[in-house]
């Protein structure tokens, strides 16, 4: 749910990075944080466990610039990927404008990818959203690993609707900004339709 | 998708006025108004040294988590929360089931006074938000600033 303030001429949108545990959601945000100008970003907040696993969420506010005199801000969130944090995941989807589904390309994580994708559908539905109508980008992460499965196989499982998709290696930034730009564009285009 | 939150000059000024008055009346350090999905709506008082965006996001996370806990024990929500620190404390109230009023106060004021003033302010804010919602939903409302943007406008955001 975007927030349009005519008085301060600002538009705020919420993007959620979703996916199985250890797929690289937090790494995406960390890369974005490290590579953006200080004036365009806020603090990166990570609510994580002592072993650096996401406990509740990561949060990064980003300013993208102005559209027709309105400052455009994106709030990026990640969810905790581990299966047993489902209650927290549901809460973070509240008010979402766009979703990035980060898939782990490793063959042994295929089942976890599918489980997380189904879980996304269910949790969105609980918030009153239909995944088919929410602007979504799919990112196939960890493409550099030797046990990565073919993109066709991932696509057949996780992107039958043909959402924009990117291959990524999040720690080195490959595909990270492409993914972000694509989802931001989808969200803005959706807002345009809504107006 | 959920109802978009839209803010207009008139309501924005009224909301800011209520928050400013609450800061004074409750002798508070800072007063924030945050949307439940984590967007900051208004900030009043000594906000200079506070990361307001992070505060808004964490407030929403906290209220969402407490709401989840409330449902687990059969409550619809916990409308009021108090967090007491050694020097500063935080009082949160859910207004009109949509936004959260956050008051940060020091030991120079009392919880009783804060509660009393918050009650009055939250009633006023609830009315303003009700009016705002009606205005947003009415067909004669202001068109979205996005209605006229072109694909080029969107592309230009990303040209570096």
Describe this protein's structure.
The complex is a heterodimer of chains A (195) and B (160). Helix content of chain A is 32%, strand content 28%. In chain A, strand 1 (3-5) and strand 2 (10-18) form a beta hairpin. Chain A contains five helices and eight strands; from the N terminus they run ββαβββαβαβαβα. The two termini of chain A are 13 Å apart. With 195 residues, chain A is an alpha/beta fold. The longest helix of chain A has 19 residues, at 176-194. In chain A, strands 1, 2, 3, 4, 5, 6, 7 and 8 form an eight-stranded mixed β-sheet that branches. Chain B has a five-stranded antiparallel β-sheet with strand order 3-2-6-5-4, sandwiched between helices. Chain B contains four helices and six strands. Chain B is globular. In chain B, strand 4 (80-84) and strand 5 (88-95) form a beta hairpin. Helix content of chain B is 45%, strand content 22%. Chain B has helices spanning 9-25, 52-72, 111-137, 151-157, and strands at residues 5-7, 30-35, 40-45, 80-84, 88-95, 99-106. In chain B, helix 1 (9-25) runs antiparallel to helix 3 (111-137). Chain B is α+β, with helices and mostly antiparallel strands and 160 residues long. Strand 1 of chain A pairs parallel with strand 1 of chain B, so a sheet runs across the interface.
What features would you highlight for this structure?
heterodimer; A: 8-stranded mixed β-sheet; globular; B: about 160 residues; alpha+beta; 5-stranded antiparallel β-sheet
Q: What is the topological layout?
A:
The complex is a heterodimer of chains A (195) and B (160).
Chain A: E1 3-5, E2 10-18, H1 25-35, E3 45-48, E4 54-67, E5 70-78, H2 86-92, E6 98-104, H3 110-126, E7 136-141, H4 151-158, E8 165-167, H5 176-194
Parallel strand pairs in A: 2-5, 2-6, 6-7, 7-8
Antiparallel strand pairs in A: 1-2, 3-4, 4-5
Chain B: E1 5-7, H1 9-25, E2 30-35, E3 40-45, H2 52-72, E4 80-84, E5 88-95, E6 99-106, H3 111-137, H4 151-157
Antiparallel strand pairs in B: 2-3, 2-6, 4-5, 5-6
């Amino acid at each position: 749910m975007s927030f349009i303030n005519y008085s301060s001429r600002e538009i705020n949108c919420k993007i959620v990075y979703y996916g199985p545990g250890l797929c690289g959601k937090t790494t995406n945000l960390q890369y974005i944080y490290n590579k953006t100008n200080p004036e365009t970003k806020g603090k990166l907040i990570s609510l994580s466990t002592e072993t650096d696993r996401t406990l509740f969420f990561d949060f990064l506010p980003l300013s993208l610039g102005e559209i027709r005199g309105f400052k455009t801000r994106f709030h990026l969130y990640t969810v905790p990927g581990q299966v047993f944090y489902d209650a927290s995941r549901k809460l973070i989807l509240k008010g979402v404008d766009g979703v990035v589904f980060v898939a782990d390309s490793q063959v042994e994580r295929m089942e976890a990818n599918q489980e997380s994708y189904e879980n996304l559908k269910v949790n969105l539905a609980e918030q009153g959203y239909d995944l088919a109508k929410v602007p979504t980008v799919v990112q196939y992460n960890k493409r550099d690993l030797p046990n990565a499965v073919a993109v066709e196989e991932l696509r057949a499982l996780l992107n039958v609707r043909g959402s924009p998709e990117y291959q990524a290696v999040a720690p080195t930034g490959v595909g990270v900004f492409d993914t972000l730009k694509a989802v931001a564009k989808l969200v803005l285009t959706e807002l345009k339709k809504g107006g | 998708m959920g109802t978009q939150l839209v803010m207009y000059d008139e309501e924005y000024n009224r909301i800011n006025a209520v928050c400013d008055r609450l800061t004074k009346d409750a002798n508070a350090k800072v007063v924030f108004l945050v949307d439940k999905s984590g967007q900051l709506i208004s900030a009043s008082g000594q906000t200079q040294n506070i990361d307001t965006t992070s505060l808004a996001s964490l407030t929403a996370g906290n209220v969402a988590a407490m709401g989840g806990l409330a449902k687990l024990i059969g409550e619809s929500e916990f409308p009021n929360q108090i967090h007491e620190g050694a020097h500063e404390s935080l009082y949160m109230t859910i207004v009109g089931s949509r936004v959260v009023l956050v008051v940060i106060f020091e030991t120079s004021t009392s919880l009783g006074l804060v509660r009393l003033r918050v009650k009055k302010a939250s009633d006023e804010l609830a009315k303003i938000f009700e009016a705002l919602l009606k205005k947003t939903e009415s067909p004669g409302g202001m068109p979205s600033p996005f209605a006229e943007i072109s694909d080029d406008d969107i592309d230009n955001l990303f040209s570096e």
